[in-house]
Amino acid sequence: MARAALHALKRLVEYEGRLSVKVRVDPDLCAGCGVCEDLCPALFIVQDGLAKVRVSPVPPDQEQSCREAVKGCPVDAILIEP
Ligand code: SF4
Question: How confident is the model over 36-65, as a mean pLDDT?
């Protein structure tokens, strides 16, 4: 039972690892603080007081810093979509 669950979890992780992750900023929530740009400048830029996404889907080598930006956003304005 536990082995089957572990196998299923591994398959899920492998599957999710192949998904391209899309990211966007909710302009109604963004406060323009710049935290996302500081944490992940390859993906985010703040212009005119609003964060913009430079590239989406997220390149695999930027996924970790993108997730850090999501966690760091003080108003939860960064949304990750499968
Ligand atoms: S961290 Fe959040 S609130 Fe701050 S600029 Fe980025 S998206 Fe906007």
Answer: 95
pLDDT band at residue 35 using 50, 70 and 90 as cut-offs: very high
Q: For residue 3, tell me if it sits in a domain.
A: no
Nearest C-alpha neighbor of 56 from the set 44, 46, 47, 68:
44
Nearest CA to ligand 1 atom 8: 30
Q: Which H or E run includes 50?
A: strand 50-53
CATH number, domain containing residue 43: 3.30.70.20
* Predicted pLDDT of residue 9: 44
Rounded to two decimals, what is the model's pTM?
Answer: 0.77
Ligand 1 within 6 A of CB of 34: yes
Contact 58, 22 (CB under 8 A): yes
> Total domain count for the chain?
1
